[in-house]
Amino acid sequence: MPSSTISDSGREEIYARAAGIYYDLGWHGAIPIDSERRPPIGFTGHDGAFPEPTQIGIWMAEHPMDNIGIRPPHGVIGIDIDAYGEKKGAQTIAALTKELGPLPPTWKSTARMPLDVLSGIYWFRVPEDGEWRDLGEHVETIRHGHRFGIVWPSINSRVNKQYKWYKPNGNEADLPPKPVDLPELPAAWIEKLQKGSTPSEGNRVDVNQVMTGLSEGDRDQKLFEYASRLRAKNIEYEEALVLVCTWAAGCHPPFPEEWAKRKVDQAWRYPAGTSFEIAPQNEQWLQRLKTAGALVTGTGEPELKFMTLGQVRRTYKKPKFLVRQNLLTDAFKFTGGAEKTLKSWTMACEAVSVAAGIPLFGYEPFDVPRAGRVLVITGEGGVDLYLDRADHVCRSLRVNPVSIEDNLLVTDQIMPFDHPGFAGGIKKAIKQFDPVLIQIEPLYIYMGATASQNAGNVYAMGPVLAALRAMAPDRAIHIGHHFNKSGRDNLSLSSMTQAGAREFADHWCLLAHREEPDLERQSFKLNMSVGARRGFGYQRHLDIVLGPLDPDSLTHQGMATFTLSEGASRSDDDEWQIIVYQEIRENPGEFTQNDLINERNGVGLDSPGKRRKALNDLKNLKLVRADKGTGSQGGRRVDRYWPIWDVDVAEAINLSSTKT
């Protein structure tokens, strides 16, 4: 483990460089602790939320210099012994050891070694459903619902030393332990910690402390104890808020009002009438405080908020194009296609166009109103391959590659979306570089094990994509994705592999082969369908010639060309869809699958394979449905086909290309 004296850069990034380490080891409650030893509001205490990985990543970006505290998971506690100065933790733990037997060797966190060998937090595994109390004077219990432990590589400002971890044998550790590796707390100690545990346990509130104000280190626990006593006395919630917030304001330094309210909310979890006593001399002070300040109402719980259309109108943000006819400034876009449809190349072309402020594909209607920075997260091929592609695109669009170097930022690190380092890296890059576009390609590499196991469940994938979207609000995110095998030729969002893309995307670019690619010339003839929930959309032919691949340098030679054709003719598949759809529309409920594959009017009798594919495509695109008809074959009822959309044939096929 690093030495107690750390560099300036290390000091600046205590939380940012350690939170991911703790998360990977199983300490998922790693929270930033500011210079006044304050945790983020709402993430400690009995009702505090346990941070999601995305939240940890945001903290890594926004509070990189903070110390790091761990809020233990259920089933882990820390016995915090203070035996320095006038603290009496040594006497308390000696008495407990005599009564209960010695604690087993375990992992310890402290900044006071080697001068103070006793003080520190001793970590143990305990039953997950336990309710824990403090053990005595200056021996507190850090548990899931109360307190947190400040740990390596944080700095203890009181002794100006770094916290370190020590193994059960007393040697300094290189890394923190995993929670599962901690020893179990002996049964006698567990019984002692649980005996008579209530939210109101502890010493009486001292009126002198109220009058003079609590000092740092005592505020959190004492205010909670006081709130619990008010709850037990059946004091009204609003009055308790006034009392606790007034006392909090007189602390040294003042205890934030929002945190004081949280203490009251925590105490109000328990039934009124819990047994305890308020010292008699405090009753007069209690009466004085009841009349102090205005009443505070509400519990602070989140709730739905509504706006009138007039309010919406006053805050309305007019949509703006990042790339005209293609990409709005706040887009959540998917580009999808089958193998070799050049998804990576088209995304690289978009990145170069935005970075340089030139039209996409060199096509004037796809103008970029203003150049901006682009973050590229590439999971296939690495940064060197990306550089080769970007340089080739630049040459083809007559852009000096050096001129956009500062506007294109790329990484090939592979990290799941739900790892705090992913969100942390995004947030940090946004703060440092202010990008207008973030590209991620391909999606599946960054899904992580948990999300991948639920890839077919839209209800599981929705939150994953929502969390990704929340990492970069008001900026365009563009994700490269794959088509499934059955949908490789269908320009439909339903052709995307994994769930969620069809439901969550608000922009899309779908690519399919018109012809088999010429790999020797690196020539690709594609159908392209572009659309957005804002309403714009179109179909084009996109022909890309990358140029021959040099076998030695493995780079493309010459100039790449990107040719867009407006009003592209329909593909052979589209024509067959129109033929089969027309037959169903004109004869609803009459034809079976066998009839349609071997239609009797003479059209396509020699093409049953194309007819079968067209019928399957129409079903996938939700243009036709199959129901049991009135007739029968061989004494059994069979499926007969009906149109779902009563529209013109060509219009139906156009609908299929943008149907989400």
Low-confidence stretches: 2-10, 196-203, 271-302, 600-606
Q: Largest sheet at a glance? A: 9 strands, mixed
CATH level-3 fold name of the largest domain: Rossmann fold
Beta content comes to 15-25%
Tally of contiguous helical segments: 21
Structural class: alpha+beta
Computed over alpha carbons, the radius of gyration is 33 Å
Overall geometric form: elongated
Helical content band: 25-40%
| Number of DSSP strand runs | 23
Looking at this structure, what is the CATH superfamily of the largest domain? Answer: P-loop containing nucleotide triphosphate hydrolases
- In whole angstroms, the N-to-C terminal distance is 53 Å
Number of domains: 4
The neighbouring-strand order within the major sheet is 15-14-16-17-13-18-19-20-21
| Average predicted confidence as pLDDT | 80
Give the CATH architecture of the largest domain.
Answer: 3-Layer(aba) Sandwich
CATH class of the largest domain: Alpha Beta
